What we know:
Blueprint: H1 2-16, H2 32-42, H3 47-63, H4 73-82, H5 86-92, H6 108-121, H7 127-134, H8 137-148, H9 157-165, H10 173-183, H11 191-202, H12 206-218
Helix pairs in contact: 1-11, 2-3, 2-6, 2-9, 4-6, 5-6, 10-11
GO molecular function, one term: peroxidase activity
Protein name: Heme peroxidase
Keywords: Oxidoreductase, Peroxidase
Amino acid sequence: MNADIEQLRAACERDLGDPAGWPKPVRYPNSLALCMIDAIYATGARHLTVDRIIGRYRSYRAGQGGDADTDGARELLANVEALGGPQQWAGQIGNRRPTSTAKDAPLRSVALTEAAQALVGLGIRTAEELRVVAADPEPAKEAKSAWCAVPGQRSGFTWRFLLMLAELPGADRTVAGYVARESGDDGSVDAGELLTAVADAAGWDVDALHQAIWRFESRRPG
């Protein structure tokens, strides 16, 4: 166990940079809208880019008398519609990043809109409803399939981050994969326990470490 801790700590120090520069760990337990925005825009992006998008959405909603931190998927769709559609939303709140490097790939704002429509169609309008569905295997499978059918989301990577942002209990598989790969663990040690042990040994915030690993993995090819 001690050897695993030292090996994983060394990998984190190599890959994640100065802990002072790690993004502040975020969760949106009451806002499915913010969970979706963060999940879809985070991959391949610097966390400051996502922070600015979240900030613009919060500011716009406050100007409407709304509260981004309690918005669900329906409120997000209403916001997109109020601005004239996904293209206009990208210009005022999001950005012009496409969902992939493929020719004619749609903007992430288009994917965001389609994902929100898919979840609403399944009766998932709030973060709490997402947690309820995700805890039940069959509805969870249907919801994940609908999400992964959206352009740029096929791998399920952003689906797992969505659940983490919504505070679904349990370790994220992406982070667990990093822990297993870099620690050399044979699966006999719980990934969450090992990550906590590394954070304790190094004096790091475990939530910040968790999200720093996820964001590092989100920028890896493939």
